[in-house]
Design goal:
With 355 residues, this protein is α/β, with parallel strands linked by helices. 36% of the residues lie in helices and 15% in strands. The strands form three sheets. It has an eight-stranded parallel barrel with strand order 1-4-5-6-9-10-11-12, surrounded by four helices.
Length: 355
């Protein structure tokens, strides 16, 4: 069972003073995660997360050098790596899949070649640094496609060609890595059936279906279980929760842009307490374990180390302008971390080994 954590923000957090404690003892965050039972780290990779003038977009600054640095710390602490290729200069999700600036003029076969070359060169670099990933996400939350407008989901043949080139690069340069296709809204069975049925004629060679599951947005674990079970049987793939989170308080902890409030607490079905957070994660692992034929293989918690340091925002000014996103900048996940405001590990993390 994969017990995974996405801590892609960690370099920025540490640079701005974040410290972490296990049972009152200050330790390196990677060491704490390992000691608590984490066995895989998920790291996102952006192509060029800087403005033309060199200003950082924010959100962790996950360029190649930063991601390799974090991958090395992952390996040094005995954990495996899931590399999450966004194929964008900044955040990619169902509402935005922006081509890297360097690829803006590319389409068709030229864009496909760029995907292959970039993926292959990236994985060769990881291999040269001794940190080949155990798993590779070809795209992030690609529910609506990737590399818009070419790879929009409505253009399923072109989307499949782009995915195929990413897959080919992984198979040739990191053949030991399992390939993940990751969509959002893990309770929407109709969405998953249609998406994977539509790509079936293209015979894409992937291994795992990843699902985002946020209970306050996506619904019950019963719905998640039904979808994981049905999709794994229908398409013959392993399934995992690629992202999840749950608040341990509804206090904003002094941060702007917080997404978890009393409304989300009510929708989640769990109390926003330390005990409620632990119960949620324990129940989620139990749900994934129930998937038939042992096809439910794990869970990744999203940004468990994002402490309430107000300046550690999901985007800086240039990043928001790049995406044309008017959403409030801020530390949006602090009250869903697996550490409290002082950096002490919550029970949901310290008891992870028993889940």
């Amino acid at each position: 069972m994969i017990k995974g954590m996405d801590i892609s923000m960690i370099k920025t957090l540490e640079e701005q003073g974040a410290c972490y404690y296990l049972n009152g003892v200050k330790k390196d965050i990677f060491r704490i995660l390992k000691e608590c039972g984490v066995n895989m780290i998920r790291l996102r990779l952006w192509y060029d997360p800087y403005s033309d003038g060199g200003a950082a977009y924010g959100g962790g600054g996950n360029d190649l050098e930063t991601t390799i640095e974090l991958a090395k710390r992952t390996a040094e602490n005995g954990m495996e790596l899931l590399l999450d290729l966004h194929y964008s200069d900044f955040w990619a999700d169902p509402s935005k899949q922006i081509k890297p600036k360097a690829w803006e003029g590319l389409c068709g076969a030229k864009l496909q070649r760029a995907v292959y070359k970039y993926t292959a060169e990236t994985l060769r670099r990881f291999r040269a640094e001794g940190v080949s990933p155990a798993m590779v996400q070809v795209g992030n939350e690609i529910t609506n496609g990737l590399l818009w407008p070419d790879g929009k989901v409505e253009n399923v043949e072109e989307m499949a060609k782009l995915l195929s080139e990413g897959i080919r690069a992984v198979r040739e340069t990191a053949p030991e890595s399992r390939i993940v296709f990751h969509l959002d809204f893990g309770t929407d069975n109709r969405l998953y059936r249609k998406w994977f049925t539509d790509i079936s004629p293209y015979q894409l060679d992937y291994d795992v279906i990843g699902m985002s599951y946020y209970p306050y947005w996506n619904g019950s674990m019963e719905e998640l279980f039904y979808n994981m079970n049905d999709i794994s049987k229908t398409f013959g793939k392993q399934v995992l929760v690629a992202e999840t989170a749950m608040g341990y308080t509804t206090d904003t902890l002094g941060c702007s842009g917080i997404v978890f409030s009393k409304e989300q607490e009510t929708a989640s079905g769990y109390p926003a307490t330390l005990e409620g957070q632990e119960a949620f994660l324990r129940d989620l692992y139990g749900t994934v374990r129930k998937v038939e034929d042992k096809k439910g293989i794990g869970v990744f918690y999203w940004e468990p180390a994002w402490l309430p340091i107000a300046s550690c925002t999901w985007a800086e000014k240039d990043g928001r302008e790049y995406m044309n996103d008017q959403a409030e900048a801020g530390n949006s996940m602090a009250n869903q971390a697996l550490f409290d405001a002082e950096g002490n590990a919550n029970p949901a993390l310290t008891h992870l080994g028993t889940m």
